[in-house]
Design a protein that fits this description.
Blueprint (H helix, E strand, L loop, with lengths): L1 E2 L2 E2 L5 H5 L17 H10 L6 H13 L6 H12 L1
Antiparallel strand pairs: 1-2
Length: 82
């Protein structure tokens, strides 16, 4: 959230109220992911089939030659949600 041109830092107040359990590096949480969640993640994951294109884009980014059109990005994001 911006206020007067300054960005406020994110503060996790939940962690302050509920501190992480003590127990060392051996302590782990168990999470179950539903089949539906897996299918959704796979459906939304981009398929990378053109490795040459990925390499060209990577080089353009490294050289500072790649520009992003924010209007085009917004249009694509909205189209994806429809």
């Amino acid at each position: 959230m911006k206020i007067s041109g300054m960005q406020r830092p994110y503060i996790n107040t939940t962690a302050a109220r509920h501190p992480a359990p003590q127990g060392g590096p051996g302590l782990a949480a168990k999470v179950a992911v539903s089949q539906e969640a897996r299918q959704l993640a796979e459906a939304r994951a981009p398929a990378v089939s053109d490795t040459a294109k990925v390499q060209r884009l990577s080089l353009a980014l490294e050289r500072g030659e790649f520009s992003v059109d924010p209007d085009q990005v917004a249009d694509r994001m909205l189209a994806e949600e429809r």
